């Protein structure tokens, strides 16, 4: 599970040139560069390991494009051909609009927005596209007329992910995990697989596309020699090199991953995860595979992602304290004692520095990760959590002096607390969310998980967020030395509630409701606490000079409300109470107040801040002498377009249609 950046939290500070951190801006996106501090100080062996794993992380990019939508690679390649061969005026309106569209496609790994899932509306004309396709001699397995229809007809494939209650979510989602099948058929297919009771079930359907062939449902497995085989072979090639220089236990972990990529057998994936989750000693670590299921409307198929990291030793002192107190946190959680975990196992939490982002982590990346996702492995072996410090640092640097706080935070004391404690509060909330929140609690006897259907992700993120919010305001935090004052919690509470009730709406188009799981979860928590504390004015909407503000009047009561809500959300998960989960999400997490929405967007966009951020990667180069690797050099390219074209040329292994 990944935690998304709370990119809408501003941070006032001295005005410093933004250009050093922001390398490109277009539409609602800013592209930031990140640094990899201490890379130079790694041992030569670790540097080489990072290099090989980074290559493997870049090789799956096409897989994600194809997973997101069947025609994404076709469209990306057609546009790239025009972009590179175009001989006309590159400042002409149509070309500029096409360039912006292509930048968005690169960013989203497809033609649907990475966060809202809506198809992009092109601002260049169909006629221009047709004329340039001919002039630039675009080669494509799909006729350009058909490509144009997909790009320009808003009624075709309008959303990547449709989870509206009552629709056929499989048929109405453009994501390429199913073809020729409807939701009922998919549900029946997997219900049958999961029917026999297995305490250690594999994640059925995780690594395949489900299609109908000759009237029969068949899984096309993503593995060497299978679907996406050409890209997976390249990934294996670099993993083998990494294996050759890695030390145990990482060496064995890489070998297990290669075995899984070769077999496509989900039991091999479990074996890999079990080995991976128990490795708490390797300095270099990585994720590479089909991991998160947020993009599947049924929460079953996983998107490909990759990243490479190493331990940030200094920052790990913080998470060590959290992990050492994991059992205390579980024992004192404000939930029904029956749903507490009697013995918390394998909580390991680290702060890491990422050196490469790939697939679903690129260019937009989570700022924290908790894996593996399989419930039974988490229960028996624990889970591993990381928070990514160099990414949050880059976000904060890029947000300096952008005017956000002044515009949206009413009270000076809140602004001061956010400025002083904002980064620490965010970091601690992420740590608690990832290393304790997701891993906490247990299911009631007889409940197997998966009962919450399409509400699973939202409710799970809600649970983890509430766990973090609740404990951030607990005196225990001061007692164990993580913070010196509960003002840190106040900073987080004020910004979280403001974001959930108001400012995150800037990310949503007018007329739309909230769709994305993390956004729904934040809205749901804020709205629920607002309503439950209404009689006592715990949270208040204040109007001043025609502007709306959200303020927290009673932090202690809010702390209690977080606990109350955690108790209920844990109950829903533990009992698999689908109806209650659905009611909670639909009532508090989805519907947007259109007047407030409009106001937030106007004020937000007047600041010229893009609500979404993503990153360009550093580049690594082997330094060789007499055929021997003697060093690995890192550099920081600052051109988004060049990096994307470079990846499309050198790390593109799949045919346009798969
Ligand atoms: Zn999470």
Strand content: 15-25%
Q: What is the helix tally?
A: 24
Structural class: alpha+beta
Which strand order spans the largest sheet, edge to edge or round the barrel? Answer: 1-10-11-9-8-7
Q: Please compute the radius of gyration using only Cα atoms.
A: 24 Å
The helicity comes to 40-55%
Calculate the terminal CA-CA distance, rounded to whole Å.
27 Å
Which geometry do the CA atoms define?
A: globular
- Bound molecule kinds, no repeats: zinc ion
**pLDDT averaged residue by residue:** 93
Low-confidence stretches: 6-18
- Largest sheet, if any? 6 strands, mixed
Number of strands: 16
Please indicate the count of domains: 2
Describe this structure in words.
This protein has 658 residues and is α+β, with helices and mostly antiparallel strands. The protein folds into 2 domains: 3-38 and 312-615, no CATH class; 61-161 and 624-650. Helix content is 46%, strand content 15%. It contains 24 helices and 16 strands. The model is unreliable at 6-18 (pLDDT under 50). Residues 1, 3, 433, 438, 461, 464 line the site of zinc ion.
Structure summarized in a few sentences:
The protein is of the alpha+beta class. It is built from 24 helices and 16 strands. The chain folds into 2 domains: 3-38 and 312-615, no CATH class; 61-161 and 624-650.
Helices and strands in order:
Layout: E1 2-3, E2 22-26, E3 29-33, H1 44-58, H2 61-68, H3 72-85, H4 93-108, H5 126-135, H6 144-152, E4 178-179, H7 183-193, E5 208-213, E6 216-221, H8 229-245, H9 250-263, H10 266-278, E7 284-292, E8 303-311, H11 316-324, H12 326-331, E9 347-359, E10 368-371, H13 375-381, E11 383-388, H14 389-399, H15 404-408, H16 412-437, H17 456-472, H18 476-479, H19 487-501, H20 517-532, E12 539-544, E13 547-552, H21 555-575, H22 578-590, H23 594-606, E14 612-616, E15 619-625, E16 628-635, H24 640-650
Parallel strand pairs: 3-14, 4-5, 9-11
Antiparallel strand pairs: 1-10, 2-3, 5-6, 7-8, 8-9, 10-11, 12-13, 15-16
Helix pairs in contact: 1-8, 3-4, 5-6, 8-9, 9-10, 11-16, 16-17, 16-19, 17-20, 17-21, 19-20, 20-21, 20-22
The structure holds zinc ion (ZN).
């Amino acid at each position: 599970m990944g935690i998304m950046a709370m990119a809408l939290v501003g941070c006032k500070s001295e005005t410093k040139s933004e250009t050093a951190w922001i390398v490109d801006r277009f539409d609602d996106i800013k592209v930031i560069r990140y640094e990899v501090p201490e890379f130079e100080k790694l041992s030569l062996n670790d540097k080489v390991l990072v290099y090989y794993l980074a290559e493997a992380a870049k090789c799956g990019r096409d897989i994600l494009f194809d997973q997101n939508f069947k025609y994404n690679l076709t469209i990306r390649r057609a546009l790239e051909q025009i972009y590179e061969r175009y001989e006309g005026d590159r400042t002409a309106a149509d070309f500029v609009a096409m360039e912006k569209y292509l930048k968005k496609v690169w960013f989203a790994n497809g033609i649907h927005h990475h966060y809202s899932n809506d198809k992009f509306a092109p601002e260049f004309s169909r006629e221009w596209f047709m004329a340039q396709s001919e002039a630039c001699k675009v080669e494509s397995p799909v006729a350009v007329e058909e490509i144009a229809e997909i790009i320009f007809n808003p009624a075709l494939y309008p959303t990547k992910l449709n989870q509206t209650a009552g629709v056929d979510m499989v048929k109405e989602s453009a994501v390429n995990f199913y073809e020729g099948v409807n939701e009922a058929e998919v549900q029946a297919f997997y219900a049958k697989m999961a029917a026999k009771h297995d305490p250690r079930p594999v994640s059925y359907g995780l690594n395949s596309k489900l299609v109908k062939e000759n009237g029969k449902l068949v899984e096309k497995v993503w593995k060497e020699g299978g679907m996406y085989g050409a890209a997976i072979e390249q990934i294996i090639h670099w993993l083998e090199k990494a294996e050759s220089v890695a030390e145990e236990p990482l060496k064995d972990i890489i070998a297990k991953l290669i075995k899984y990529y070769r077999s496509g057998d989900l039991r091999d994936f479990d074996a890999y995860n079990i080995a991976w989750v128990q490795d708490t000693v390797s300095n270099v670590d990585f994720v590479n595979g089909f991991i998160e299921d947020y993009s599947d409307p049924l929460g079953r198929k996983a998107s490909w992602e990759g990243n490479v990291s190493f331990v940030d030793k200094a920052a790990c002192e913080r998470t060590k304290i959290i992990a050492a107190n994991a059992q205390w946190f579980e024992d004192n959680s404000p939930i029904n004692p029956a749903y507490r975990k009697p013995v918390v196992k394998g909580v390991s939490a680290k702060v890491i520095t990422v050196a490469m982002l790939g697939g679903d982590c690129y260019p937009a990346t989570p700022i924290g990760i908790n894996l593996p996702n399989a419930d039974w492995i988490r229960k028996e072996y624990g889970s591993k959590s990381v928070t990514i410090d160099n990414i949050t640092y880059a976000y904060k640097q890029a947000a300096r002096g952008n005017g956000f706080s002044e515009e949206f935070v009413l009270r000076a004391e809140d602004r001061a607390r956010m400025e002083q404690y904002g980064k620490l509060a965010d970091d601690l909330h992420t740590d608690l969310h990832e290393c304790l929140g997701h891993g906490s609690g247990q299911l009631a006897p007889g409940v197997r998980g998966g009962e919450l259907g399409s509400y699973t992700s939202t409710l799970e993120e809600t649970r983890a967020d509430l766990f973090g919010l609740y404990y951030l305001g607990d005196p225990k935090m001061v007692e164990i030395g993580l913070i010196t004052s509960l003002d840190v919690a106040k900073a987080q509470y004020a910004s979280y509630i403001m974001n959930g009730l108001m400012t995150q709406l800037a990310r949503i188009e007018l007329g739309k409701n909230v769709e994305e799981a993390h956004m729904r979860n934040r809205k749901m928590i804020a709205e629920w606490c607002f309503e439950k504390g209404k009689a006592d004015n715990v949270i208040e909407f204040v109007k001043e000079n025609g502007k709306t503000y959200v303020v927290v009047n009673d932090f202690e009561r809010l702390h209690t409300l977080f606990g109350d809500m955690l108790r209920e959300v844990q109950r829903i998960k533990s009992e698999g109470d689908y109806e209650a989960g659905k009611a909670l999400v639909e009532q508090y997490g989805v519907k947007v107040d259109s007047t407030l929405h409009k106001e937030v967007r106007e004020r937000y966009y007047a600041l010229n801040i893009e609500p979404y951020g993503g990153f360009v990667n550093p580049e690594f180069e082997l330094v060789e002498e007499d055929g021997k690797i003697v060093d690995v050099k890192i550099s920081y390219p600052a051109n988004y377009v060049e990096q994307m074209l470079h990846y499309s040329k050198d790390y593109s292994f799949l045919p346009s249609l798969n």
